Amino acid sequence: MMLSPHTANLALAFNPKKNSLGFLRFFLAILVVLQHSYHLANFGRDPLFILSNHSITAGALAVHSFLLLVVF
To answer: Could you say which of 8, 39, 60, 68 would form a disulfide bridge with 3 (CB–CB 3.0 to 4.6 Å)?
Structure first.
């Protein structure tokens, strides 16, 4: 659907049924749950924490990404 500059608004441009933001939110929520599972089940550190040289966890990355989605 092409929008002319005069009729374009955010409700039309970002139709919640025709974008992938819902999937991104779901994926980021799964990352947070996985992050908590490492601590609750004593699996050790999550793989992203080890691969990032102890700088960020999967949960922190997911929360920061989710906040970016909310702001923008």
So the answer is: 8
Instruction: Return d(Cα 1, Cα 52) in angstroms, integer.
Output: 42
Residue 64 pLDDT > 90:
yes
Q: Give the integer Cα–Cα distance in Å for 54 and 8.
A: 45
Return the DSSP state at 46.
-
* Residue 33, token pair as written in the block: 């749950």
Residue 36 one-letter amino acid: H
Q: What letter represents residue 17's amino acid?
A: K
The beta-carbon contacts of 60-67 under 8 Å, at least 24 apart in sequence, are 60/35, 61/31, 62/28, 62/29, 62/31, 62/32, 62/35, 63/28, 63/32, 65/24, 65/28, 66/25, 66/28, 66/29
